[in-house]
Design brief:
Elements (H helix, E strand, L loop, with lengths): L1 H25 L5 H13 L5 H26 L1 H10 L1 H4 L3 H22 L10 H6 L4 H26 L5 H26 L1 H5 L1
């Protein structure tokens, strides 16, 4: 994947940055911690403008978040609650817990979206509760843009400063992403295994 990303970005420029960041948000295994640092390195080399790289990366990140947001919004909280009633063990939540979670999101949703866009492995998932809670599009775009700009800025800046050692960024960020993902999976399996006990 590393070779594909570098070759694709070298040949496609800003459009490639936009496309890969959009795909990264739709399909998380494509890592932004490789995309943006390499784009920063290319900017440091003088082949791209660093502001253009930031704008393309941020725009792609937002474009990739929108399908998750709209998908969750169309599916709706009511359908999710009905699905949870039928498959509570595998959802690991009940109708009531979803209701409470949505109420909490209504109160703190802006901060959740803003900071969620800065956390590896959570960045894509954060669009789902925003859609389920029918968060206003203007708010979703504003806080997603701010969070995404900070995230892409950090990665681009690291690649720009490190230049031909830009891949070191992934060496630090990738283990964090994997640790967060592993933690989420362990938490999910724990809830499945202890479901009957918690229900009682």
């Amino acid at each position: 994947m590393f070779k594909f990303i570098t070759e694709f970005l070298e040949s496609s420029g800003y459009l490639g940055v936009f496309a890969l960041m959009a795909l990264e948000n739709i399909f998380p295994p494509i890592p932004s911690e490789l995309i943006m640092p390499f784009a920063g390195f290319v900017a440091a080399r003088g082949d791209l403008n660093v502001v253009g790289v930031l704008l393309a990366g941020t725009a792609g990140s937002i474009a990739g978040a929108l399908p998750w947001y709209y998908g969750a919004r169309i599916y709706g909280k009511e359908r999710l609650e009905k699905f949870a009633d039928r498959h509570a063990r595998w959802m690991t939540v009940t109708h009531g817990e979803i209701e409470h979670a949505m109420e909490a999101f209504d109160r703190h949703g802006r901060k959740v979206v803003l900071f969620g866009r800065l956390i590896p492995a959570i960045r894509t998932l954060i669009s789902v509760p925003a859609g389920l809670a029918c968060m206003p599009m203007s708010q979703f775009l504003l806080y997603s843009c701010i969070g995404s700009l900070v995230w892409t800025g950090l990665l681009t800046g690291a690649g720009y400063l490190l230049e031909n050692q830009y891949e070191r960024v992934a060496d630090y960020v990738d283990p964090v992403s994997k640790a967060i993902l592993a933690g989420l999976l362990l938490w999910y399996f724990y809830r499945v295994v202890t479901w009957k006990q918690r229900k009682a």
